Amino acid sequence: MTNSAEATSSAGAAARIHVLSTGGPTALIELGGLRLVTDPTFDEPQDYVSPSGAVLTKTEPAALGPDGLGRVDAVLLSHDQHPDNLDRSGRAFLAGVPVVLTTPVGAERLAGQNEAVRAEGLAPWARRELPRPDGGVLTVTAVPALHGPEGFEERTGPVTGFVLTAEDLPSVYVSGDNASLEHVREIAARFGPVETAVLFAGAACVPDVYGDALLTLDGAQAAEAARILGSRHTVVLHCDSWAHFSEDFAAVETAFDKAGLGVSLSRTRHGRLYEL
Fold first, then answer.
1. What's the whole-model pTM score?
2. Domain boundaries defined on the chain
3. Class of domain 6-275
4. Residue 216: count of CB within 10 angstroms of its CB
5. Which of 222, 208, 139 shows the shortest CA–CA distance to 179?
6. Which of 71, 80, 194, 209 would bridge 106 by S-S if both were Cys, CB 3.0 to 4.6 A apart?
């Protein structure tokens, strides 16, 4: 692992994903010369009280902090209301980023909390074009996500995923905290096959608040999502390093191997860099 993500930059890879946390949601995606960070979480292990009143416990630190990231062009924030997707240091980090793309209500909250944060809310299927250093454009499309079973929307709050596309680049899907395969089918119908799927998994479960409901994909569902999307590469995030995940990455590996999709799965490790 290097001390700087920018120091490892390479022009040769079509897409690069640097996993910045053991099993959290934070990664650096390099695509078309742009550097995009997903759900920034850089705090040391600690307990948080979520909006639902549940105590969420972070168990491992990030592999790389904000100071080691180098230039960041945008943040893709699936949602702002849960500390395992945006923690205290992540919120401070947002103030120095050119643009934060997130849900409409999340953008309103972030702007109200810190006027230095340049947040833009995207409704499902809305697009934002990001100019690339080479003169091209990367299109970011917000796509539907459901943080738990149907009927939980008011309790868990809105979440978004993202699809990154350009005529000359491989497509990338970032799921956010999505638990709905039906939404994955909608996304595949519009964008499939997707070259690289970045899936948040872990089978998140908070029994004191939501009973036995899964708030994110489990391993078998993540494998099915990859199959639906037709993805050649899959990078799984957010599947351990928090106590409320009921499955770890080993369970994801087993599920992908059982589904015959193991060859497509990047064997995610702390601080790993994947050239796709």
1. 0.93
2. 6-275
3. alpha beta
4. 29
5. 222
6. 80
